[in-house]
Amino acid sequence: MEVSNYWYFLSGLTLLSALMVVLSKNPIHSVLYLVFTFFCISGHYVLLNAQFLMAVNIIVYAGAIMVLFLFVIMMFDLKKNIPDSKTNLTKLAGTVVAGSVLVILVAAFRTIQYPTPDESTFNPNNGMVENLGKVLYSEYLLPFELVTVLFFVAMVGSVMLGKREVGDRNF
Amino acid sequence: MTPVIALSLFGIINLFLGFTFKRQSLQVVTLLFIICSMALTAMDWNHEYLWFGDMMKTNNLSINFSLIIQLAGLLVVAFSNGFGKDEVYTQPAEYYAILLFSLVGALLMVSFQNLIMLFVGLEILSVAMYVLTGSDKRNLRSNEAALKYFLMGSFATGFLLFGIALVYGSTRSLYISGILYNLSHTAPESLPSFLYAGIILMGIGLLFKISAAPFHFWTPDVYEGAPTIFTMFMSTVVKTAGFAAIYHILDVTFGGFQKNWIITVYFITIITLILGNISAAYQQSAKRMLAFSSISHAGYMLLTVCANQPSTSSNILYYSLAYTLATAVSFAVLMVVAEYQTGRTEKPENFDALNGLAKNNPSLAFAFTVALLSLAGIPLTAGFWGKFFVFTDMFNKNLTYPIIIAVLMSAVGIYYYFKGIISVYFNSGEIEKIETSFLFKIALWSACIGTLVLGIYPTLLKSIF
């Protein structure tokens, strides 16, 4: 099977699961469909020759962030039926905004010219972990090390803010 | 580069010292750390280095900016007083460590040569500020301010990243030198138009951090909600670093495209001047007034960024230094008075709480007055020369209308700054003698004398910058 067939299959799957995120009534189902959407997007990364990005996407988005989402949703009281608060005006406004975005996107895609990759400089191993690691530890060593300072600040800060405090709240 | 490494290490050491040291000695240790890294910064004077393959460049300009930033850090630590006697609710080791780490971020923002470095530096500085804003955990205002700052700041970072991506897409390089090379070797017609969108988006991300007008909505709430000592840090360090980055991006890197961004930045500058000054005049709370005044000073500094003259960098430096000294002193006095008034009056940060300060605390009142005069731009203070140099820049570029607006707005400024002076000297009120620590006094007086000396001999520093 040709690569483009995989692409069509994956894109269809992505769109379908993304639609189901919005359409399903149960929030838990929405989250699970979102996880599925992320997996499909990771598939696109593989087609684009970015294997490392695929792994990171699955670990960070599908793994960490979505689990956080699930926890938050579980903490809400889902038994309560929240009435549909949207008025006709907001529905109309939403339709107009979404419709104009659609028009703009269609107009943009009509005139777009896709660049073709240069066969002589194309390297199929570009997205591999090995190459990424080499770049990260040579050219981008300094920012890579400084990101550790960033994470350390975030860690110290969250520990400091997360400590339980007794006493009155004030204003 | 050495101060970046040194400050990161000092931050980690500081966390460990928290186990063993008393809070007052922690303050002294942190002061020594910052002085040490200032010395390391100054050692590179008159040398130009590129670090880690063009990632960072240190030259005299970046050293000057780094020194001002670290001086602001030094003042904040000296004013912090070990974060008071509150043993349960304050964690000085963590605060000092985060302050040191955020200085690392600020130093990256003044010496970056790669847009990734700008992003990392900005994030280190911002994340540290989000945490410190919310550090008064039991105070609802502080909680609200931290959340607001975090949400809006992440949004602004998104703008910056999108801008960087567009610039990278159109110039095929993340290095400033590479961008300049590609821009000068491509015909302007064949540059993709999203380059201009990228420049504006990067500008928006940075203008948010220095609280220029359409992006200033977070400033008053965050400045008011954060503990005063961290507000002082925010309004000095973040602003200086932000302006260094804006100068580097707009004037140095994209100076050739001035006609594409100048109208937007003009508009932002004028709105900033008008909104900042007019809203400051309405405030009852002195802390909120200083927040709006910091918005208006961003407007004055943006004027010189618009002018883009050879003297722009030295003017930004001079203005930042004058502004840093004056703001630090005014926030410091406000902080000790508010501490004294907590429990005595309902709103300890209002102008009313300062009433009659001069009677029993003449030195605090005098320092406060000098600081406010400098902020207002009265002659014989550093603030006057800061404004003077900025206006000269504009005049050389034949930009008359912005000067008229700026001069009118500094007249409005005189009104609200003098409100503080009037309540200190002429209104009656009962404030007993406020005891301050030795380090606090030294910092207060050196900042005051610095303001006056810079006001009398501006050439003293102008010859260095």
Automatic annotation (TrEMBL), chain A:
Subcellular location: Cell membrane
Reaction(s) catalysed (UniProt annotation): a quinone + NADH + 5 H(+)(in) = a quinol + NAD(+) + 4 H(+)(out)
Membrane-crossing residue ranges in chain numbering: 6-24, 31-48, 54-76, 88-109, 140-161
Short name of any one Pfam family annotated for the protein: Oxidored_q3
Keywords in alphabetical order: Cell membrane, Membrane, NAD, Quinone, Transmembrane, Transmembrane helix
E.C. code: 7.1.1.-
Main location (coarse class): membrane
Free-text function comment from the UniProt entry: NDH-1 shuttles electrons from NADH, via FMN and iron-sulfur (Fe-S) centers, to quinones in the respiratory chain. Couples the redox reaction to proton translocation (for every two electrons transferred, four hydrogen ions are translocated across the cytoplasmic membrane), and thus conserves the redox energy in a proton gradient.
GO cellular component, one term: plasma membrane
Keyword Membrane attached: yes
The protein's name in its UniProt record: NADH-quinone oxidoreductase subunit J
Upper taxonomic lineage: Bacteria, Pseudomonadati, Bacteroidota, Cytophagia, Cytophagales
Listed GO MF terms: NADH dehydrogenase (ubiquinone) activity; quinone binding
Classification via InterPro entries: NADH_UbQ/plastoQ_OxRdtase_su6, Nuo/plastoQ_OxRdtase_6_NuoJ
Domain of life of the native organism: Bacteria
Its membrane topology: Multi-pass membrane protein
TrEMBL record, chain B:
Main location, first listed in the record: membrane
Record bears the keyword Cell membrane: yes
GO CC terms in record: endomembrane system; plasma membrane
Coiled-coil intervals: none
Protein name: NADH-quinone oxidoreductase subunit N
Xref: InterPro entries: NADH-Q_OxRdtase_suN/2, ND/Mrp_TM
A GO MF label: NADH dehydrogenase (quinone) (non-electrogenic) activity
Keyword Transmembrane helix: yes
Naturally occurring in which organism (per UniProt): Sandaracinomonas limnophila
Tree of life domain: Bacteria
NCBIfam families assigned to the protein according to its UniProt record, in alphabetical order: NDH_I_N (TIGR01770)
Matching Pfam families: Proton_antipo_M
Function: NDH-1 shuttles electrons from NADH, via FMN and iron-sulfur (Fe-S) centers, to quinones in the respiratory chain. The immediate electron acceptor for the enzyme in this species is believed to be a menaquinone. Couples the redox reaction to proton translocation (for every two electrons transferred, four hydrogen ions are translocated across the cytoplasmic membrane), and thus conserves the redox energy in a proton gradient.
Membrane topology type: Multi-pass membrane protein
EC number: 7.1.1.-
Segments passing through the bilayer: 28-45, 65-83, 95-128, 149-170, 190-208, 229-249, 261-282, 289-310, 316-338, 364-386, 398-418, 438-460
Subunit structure, interactors included: NDH-1 is composed of 14 different subunits. Subunits NuoA, H, J, K, L, M, N constitute the membrane sector of the complex.
Family recorded in the similarity comment: Belongs to the complex I subunit 2 family.
Keyword terms of this UniProt record: Cell membrane, Membrane, NAD, Quinone, Translocase, Transmembrane, Transmembrane helix, Transport
Compartment list: Cell membrane; Endomembrane system; Membrane
Recorded catalytic activity of this chain's protein: a quinone + NADH + 5 H(+)(in) = a quinol + NAD(+) + 4 H(+)(out)
